[in-house]
Amino acid sequence: MAAVSAVFFNTINGSLMGHEHYAIPHGLLYRFILYPRYFCEWVEWLAFALAASPVPSFALVGAFIATVSLPWLFFNEVWLVLPWAYKGHKWYHSEFPDYLKERRVIIPFLF
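Above: the chain sequence. Below: its structure as tokens.
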């Protein structure tokens, strides 16, 4: 979750006092999606995969395994992050009644 937290040091007794504050992020890509960091990371890895290795064959599972190279394995990250991001999106809807209903999770205008 995108949390803004501050930790204060109490100089009288030397203890830490923590305070967390949750807020809705705004600006730039946050107007369209909740997790722009993941979206930009995926675009970066896709560009790297296109530039560094040939496109794998999607004809058969065996052909895919034989032709896939390491940069194309970034799709694994996509499938691991999607459920967590969706859960976070639902959390924002439950915690903030004024949360933007048209804001997507990760992919602008789609998901």
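The first strand starts at residue 3 and ends at 9.
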